[in-house]
């Protein structure tokens, strides 16, 4: 193999990678998810026992995302296309686990398996309908997006006004604080994804004016980093605070 040609190709690959915002966010997302997973797993022994399962789930969420980002990054670089299938597989595994966090923190205050399954079912409906609108029936993206949005707002209702809110308020202390911050991630952080959805599926839709405003994958990558890592950091910070009191 000609070494000079190899180095030239490597230089071109590296330049293209870091000059492209989408590629760069895939790279940063991959590294950030890996670092977060290692951090959460290692810190499990430094918090009170009642928080360890929640922190373990946080680490699993970011580890699953790390594996998928590793493959999504390579897929994007090889094809230039959005890795839609990989992304929805990732979300189908990680978003229900994020919903499980609400059950875990309210469990001792009376949180039930029924509540957990309500959250998981709503999250799966939200993701399946989103996938149909983005990849299967893009011509009716607005309709599938509406179905996805209804499932999303049902989760928001449970967390902010419904059963989750009531349980967290009854528990008080670190549980109530954790629910408040995680609730903000659901309300504001998860709202990033509909923006990415509309940017990516705008052709022929009423929101077509959003097309070209930003790359869909950049929005999704930023949203994943904020929400997946942010969820875990909220759990960790409150676990440390609660453990220190004990």
Class by alpha and beta content: mainly alpha
The CATH architecture designation is Up-down Bundle
Kindly report the CATH topology. Answer: Rhopdopsin 7-helix transmembrane proteins
Query: What would CATH call the homologous superfamily?
Result: Rhodopsin 7-helix transmembrane proteins
Distance between the termini: 63 Å
Main traits of this protein?
Rhopdopsin 7-helix transmembrane proteins, 246 residues
How would you describe this structure to a colleague?
This protein is an all-alpha fold and 246 residues long. It has a single domain, classed as Rhodopsin 7-helix transmembrane proteins (Rhopdopsin 7-helix transmembrane proteins), CATH 1.20.1070.10. The protein contains ten helices and no strands. The protein is globular and about 55 Å long. The N and C termini lie far apart (63 Å).
